[in-house]
Amino acid sequence: KNEVEQSPQNLTAQEGEFITINCSYSVGISALHWLQQHPGGGIVSLFMLSSGKKKHGRLIATINIQEKHSSLHITASHPRDSAVYICAVHGPQYGNKLVFGAGTILRVKS
Amino acid sequence: DTGVSQDPRHKITKRGQNVTFRCDPISEHNRLYWYRQTLGQGPEFLTYFQNEAQLEKSRLLSDRFSAERPKGSFSTLEIQRTEQGDSAMYLCASSLWSDTQYFGPGTRLTVL
Fold it and tell me: DSSP readout, A35-95?
């Protein structure tokens, strides 16, 4: 069982739809990261959060430490949001490295 | 500063050859990480440096793999006697202590 589980694995949405991607992890962490990866491999860090909620433009990330769960929301989705979204955690159990989920492949159709 | 850079971006090699990749981190970052990503999977940790010291290595890093960061700036990852199973994207990231990790564009390795 992966230590970081993401759902769904694949998501197809229509332009304008509200999108939610979920991430669950199994042990206590220091922080959780949401990353975006476009075809070709480049990874961009979207959020690093250890509690509550963060917002940047149309992206919102929330985390519930007690439930060991985080969500990434995209409002008013656009085809340029199509990418792989990866959740990653770090904390005392993992040393200083990131432990990654398998990613959610998002395709937004116009 | 232009961010984390990696060279080469793509490498095709024959089985049994040695390859070396380079990563240049963001200049003020003291930590540098190497990850490997195979198709359809999230990245997996290989090793990390704090300044020039290699502080942790994954069990994924067999004795054919070696990484260095000689002056605490750029790092190299060498794979000796490459195998087809080494084909993957090799990602480098850097951070200031445990702050946000910034990723390079990756080096895609294909072993024929």
Answer: EEE-TTS-EEEEEEESSEEEEETTEEEEEETTTTEEEEEESS--GGG-EEEEEEEEEGGGE
- Number of CB atoms found within 10 A of residue A81's CB: 18
- Min mean pLDDT across A88-97, B70-79, B89-98 is at A88-97
Interface test with B, best of A94, A96, A100 (most B CBs within 10 A): A96
- Predicted local confidence at residue B88, as pLDDT: 96
| A88, A97, B13, B40 alpha-carbon torsion, rounded to 10° | -20
Structure tokens at B50: 């704090």
Q: Which residues of B touch A46 (CB under 8 A)?
A: none
Looking at the complex, does the CB of residue A9 fall below 8 Å from at least one CB of chain B? no
The pLDDT score that the predictor gives to residue A1 is 57
Average pLDDT of adjacent 10-residue blocks, chain A of 110 residues? 88 97 93 91 89 96 96 97 95 85 96
Burial class for A32, CB neighbours closer than 10 Å (0-12, 13-18, 19+): buried
Selecting from A40, A45, A90 the residue whose C-beta is nearest the C-beta of B102 gives A45
CB pairs under 8 A between A and B: 62
Whether A99 has its CB under 8 Å from any CB of chain B: the answer is yes
